[in-house]
Amino acid sequence: MFVFVAAEEPNPLLPPVSEIILGAVVFLILVWLVKKYVVPNFEKAFAERTAAIEGGMAEAEAAQAEAKEALETYTAQLAAARHEAARIREDAREQGAAIVAEMREQAQVEAGRITTTARAQIEADRQQAVQQLRAEVGTLATTLAGRIVGESLEDEARQRRTVERFIAEIESQDDGAPVRGAR
Questions:
Q1: Taking the domains of the chain in order of start, what are their residue ranges?
Q2: If DSSP states are collapsed to H, E and C, what string results for the chain?
């Protein structure tokens, strides 16, 4: 009897052992090549990207700090300019008030001068009118006295005394004093 031991037939799902070993060696070589050449390039690219991002963030923070500083400087300059403008307005107001006061003072001085001049002119005109009236009253008084007395008062000294006496009597009547020679 032969007993045949049937040799087992290979399993089609399992590869031969030599292929498994060869595949493992090639895989390990591939891993080593990737680790040796590819991974450092990836790490370098990642490092560069990280540095670029961090640098961009640092630049952005620096730009933001610079903008904030510029804003603070601008705000301070604006406040100083507003303060200066207020001071200039106040100075202009004070100068305007001083000019108005000076002009009022000059106007008052000018008004006083004009008033004084006008009073002097009025007094001069009054004196001239009084002199003219005295001359006319004297002439009228002399003529009237000559007609009343019946004598000529052509003598200048006599005429002057008569006129002065007449004017003195008129002035004393104006003052409320009794007339001389009136009884």
A1: 17-174
A2: CCCCCCCCCCCCCCCCHHHHHHHHHHHHHHHHHHHHHHHHHHHHHHHHHHHHHHHHHHHHHHHHHHHHHHHHHHHHHHHHHHHHHHHHHHHHHHHHHHHHHHHHHHHHHHHHHHHHHHHHHHHHHHHHHHHHHHHHHHHHHHHHHHHHHCCCCCCHHHHHHHHHHHHHHHHHHHCCCCCCCCC
